[in-house]
Design brief:
By secondary structure, the chain is of the alpha/beta class. The protein contains seven helices and ten strands. α6 links the parallel β7 and β8.
């Protein structure tokens, strides 16, 4: 069963002769529980694609279906709520709240939604990611790799339908990158999580179950379902 599907996904910035076709009719699917990597060079359209998959920007044409819902059929406020409940994000720059400690950062999206955290589930995530001794630390007291683990824990904590990772190891050295991606994959498998990661790093992409290649806003190769 597909947890994510795009059809004719198009994004054009500007108009006329200066128009930039960031996405040019992208079609692909991701199955539930799959770890897919979208690989492309800078300017290939992969970041634009991730923003569309996560409902952070609206397409010029086409549709994105997440967990059976056409996300762009939703009004802005509805889309914000859907995104908070159904889509987890892991960004290159971590995006942790500096005045909150590790545990508070992890449960923040759940609390923003007016829900109570599943403490047992979050405890499992914290254990897998090796954060037990860091829960009271503020982000600026953590290494880059530790901050990214916190970001992964936060993304998983709300049990999203899909987790989107945007160059999640871009600010990490190669050893830490391998460690963090390994933990992301293990936690994804443990909790049956669907992960879509964009990267320009061929070595990192090999850790995924499936690689999709994008170039000039089009899917040009890889294992496209």
């Amino acid at each position: 069963m597909y947890i994510l599907e795009t059809k004719g996904l198009t994004k054009i910035y500007g108009s006329g002769e200066t128009a930039v076709h960031a996405l040019a009719g992208v079609d692909f699917t991701v199955s539930r529980g799959e770890f897919a990597a979208i690989v492309g060079m800078s300017g290939s359209g992969k970041s634009t694609l991730l923003h569309m998959l996560g409902g952070l920007d609206r397409p010029t044409d086409g549709k994105v279906t997440v967990d059976g819902k056409d996300i762009f059929s939703l009004k802005d406020e509805e889309l914000t709520i859907f995104r908070r409940r159904k889509i987890g994000f892991v960004f290159q720059n971590y995006n942790l709240v500096p005045v909150l400690n590790v545990y508070e950062n992890i449960v923040l999206p759940i609390q923003l939604d007016g829900e109570q955290p599943d403490k047992e589930f979050i405890g499992q995530i914290i254990e897998i990611l090796g954060l037990e001794s860091k829960l009271s630390n503020l982000p600026n007291n953590l290494s880059g790799g530790q901050q990214q683990r916190v970001a992964i824990a936060r993304a998983l904590a709300s049990k999203p339908a899909i987790l989107l990772a945007d160059e999640p190891t871009g600010n990490l050295d190669s050893k830490t990158s391998q460690d963090v991606l390994g933990l992301l994959k293990v936690s994804g498998q443990k909790f049956g999580q669907t992960i879509v990661m964009i990267t320009h790093n061929e070595e990192i992409s090999q850790m995924a179950d499936r690689i999709i290649r994008i170039e000039d806003g089009k899917i040009v190769g890889g294992d496209v379902l």
